[in-house]
Design goal:
Layout lengths: L5 H19 L17 H13 L9 E5 L5 H10 L2 E6 L2 H12 L7 E5 L12 E6 L9 H11 E14 L5 H13 L5 E2 L2 H9 L2 E7 L1 H16 L4 H7 L14 E9 L8
Parallel strand pairs: 1-2, 1-4, 2-3, 4-5, 5-6
Antiparallel strand pairs: 5-8, 7-8
Helix pairs in contact: 5-7
Organism: Streptomyces chlorus
GO molecular function: methyltransferase activity
Pfam families: Methyltransf_11
C-alpha cells in the first residue's frame, strides 16, 4: 500500500467535498448499528459512532478537545454542542475547514467550535493544551501513525484521553479479497494496520492502553450497503470525475477487512514534553 501524502489527501477531499456529502452524509465517516436489526438511518448511525467515541473521552464544559481530521465539522460541532467542551478541529482540506467553520458559525454562541487547516504530523499547538483528542477515521490517511500518536500525546495533558477509529486486517485476506481492499485503499489514499499493531504503537508513543475493540460487525456491512445504494444514484459525470476503480458493493462481504475502535490515555504521572 502506498504511503499517503498529506497535501494530496487534502486535495482529494477538496475535490470530493460535494460527492462525499452525497454518499457519506453529513459526518463523512462510517455508521454504527448496535444490532443487525437496528432501524437507525445512516446519518443517525454516524452520529451514534461519534457519540460512542465521545463518551470514552470524559469531556465536559471545562474541557478542550482536539478533533484530528474534522471533515466538514459535523462531529466536532456535535461534541461541542452536547458536551459543552471547547472543540478545535483540523483537516488538511481547505474546503472542509471552510465548511466546518461555516457550520460552527451557524450554531448558537454556546457551541464553542473552530477549525483550522493543519497537518496532524506537525500539530500547531502547545504542549499539554488539550484534555482529549478524537480521530474518527483520520488515521487511515496518516503517512506515519506513530508520528501522529507522538504529536497527539504531546498536545494532551497528563491524564488526557484519545479515542480513534482505524481500518485493520482482522483476519488474513485471501488474494481475491486483498485485491479488492487494496483498490479501495488506493482510491481513498489510505492504509490499514494489522490487528495487533496498536498496543505497540501506543506504548512507543507514550500512551497507556485503555481499550481496543473490533466493531466491524456493527459498522462495515451496513455502511458499505448504504454507500452502494447512494453510489448508484450519483450522476455519471460525478463518477467519471472521481475516476475511482473501487466499488463499495465489492467490500460488503470482505470478512477479513476490519474496523477498530481504540482508546488510550496519556499517563497522569507523565511530565515529558
Amino acid at each position: 500500500m502506498a504511503t499517503p501524502i498529506p497535501d494530496e489527501v487534502g486535495m482529494l477531499y477538496d475535490a470530493l467535498i460535494d460527492s462525499a456529502s452525497v454518499t457519506m452524509g453529513k459526518n463523512l465517516h462510517f455508521g454504527y448499528w448496535e444490532s443487525p436489526d437496528s432501524d437507525l438511518s445512516f446519518d443517525e448511525a454516524t452520529d451514534l459512532l461519534t457519540d460512542l467515541l465521545t463518551e470514552r473521552l470524559h469531556v465536559g464544559p471545562d474541557s478542550r478537545l482536539l478533533d484530528v481530521g474534522c471533515g466538514v465539522g459535523t462531529p466536532g460541532v456535535r461534541i461541542a454542542r452536547l458536551s459543552g467542551a471547547e472543540v478545535t478541529g483540523i483537516s488538511v482540506s481547505k474546503e472542509q475547514v471552510e465548511r466546518a467553520n461555516a457550520l460552527a458559525r451557524s450554531q448558537t454562541s454556546a457551541c464553542r467550535a473552530e477549525f483550522h487547516q493543519a497537518n496532524a504530523m506537525e500539530l500547531p499547538f502547545p504542549d499539554a493544551s488539550f484534555d482529549a483528542v478524537v480521530a474518527l477515521e483520520s488515521m487511515i490517511h496518516m503517512p506515519d501513525r506513530g508520528q501522529v500518536l507522538r504529536e497527539i500525546r504531546r498536545v494532551l495533558r497528563p491524564g488526557g484521553r484519545l479515542a480513534l477509529t482505524d481500518f485493520h486486517e482482522r483476519t488474513p485476506l485471501p488474494p481475491a479479497h486483498r485485491a479488492v481492499v487494496d483498490v479501495m485503499l488506493k482510491d481513498l489514499m489510505s492504509t490499514m494496520v494489522q490487528v495487533d499493531d496498536y498496543p505497540r504503537l501506543l506504548r512507543t508513543a507514550g500512551f497507556q492502553f485503555t481499550e481496543m475493540r473490533d466493531i466491524s460487525e456493527e459498522t462495515l456491512r451496513r455502511t458499505f450497503q448504504t454507500l452502494t445504494e447512494r453510489a448508484a444514484e450519483m450522476p455519471t459525470e460525478v463518477l467519471d470525475k472521481l475516476d475511482w476503480k473501487s466499488d463499495p458493493k465489492d467490500m460488503i462481504d470482505v470478512a477479513g477487512f476490519g474496523y477498530l475502535l481504540v482508546v488510550a490515555e496519556r499517563p497522569r504521572a507523565d511530565d515529558r514534553s
